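Hi R.,

Here's the chain you asked about this morning:
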Amino acid sequence: MHGPALVNWLLAALAAGSGGYYGWRARRGRRAGASCGDGSPARRESDLLEAAMGLGMAGMALLPGVAWGWPYALLAAVLLTGALAGRGAALRAHRLHHGIGALAMAYMALAMAGGHAGHHGAPGGLPMVTGLLLVYFGGYVLWEGSRLIPADGAVPAAPLLRACRAGMGIGMFAMLLTV
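And the predicted structure, written out as tokens:
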């Protein structure tokens, strides 16, 4: 990533912590014979995808390179295809969100590699694509944050889960700012 080393390390810690939490949720759900929370296969899929995204973000923050882009491009293609073919609106939305996230990871890996190979670390992304992804993840963070702290003062369901989702969105937003 382009930016101060301390920011890269803090972003890596945030992403690795969130990814580790989701990995733990997926592992705990597998041992119990069902997924964590509601027991749906979509929930376990979501936990595994969030773990992959978090750990990938941590790796990209510390060791940027084009090698990160190809696995996430393939994952994005699978998820976006699954979003079109999925049964149920919730499953389609879930796969679409993760597909956009994987696509953003691939884009950032390729753009950062292009910036490093270009003119003295100049940004390598396309301003329109970066802007659209910033709007998407900025809106997602605001939406997830509003669910974390409801206006009526009620305690939200699964506050750590929601905080990790918001943290992952903030991480994606921060990484996109450096492209």
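The two ends are 8 Å apart (CA to CA).

Let me know if you need anything else.
M.
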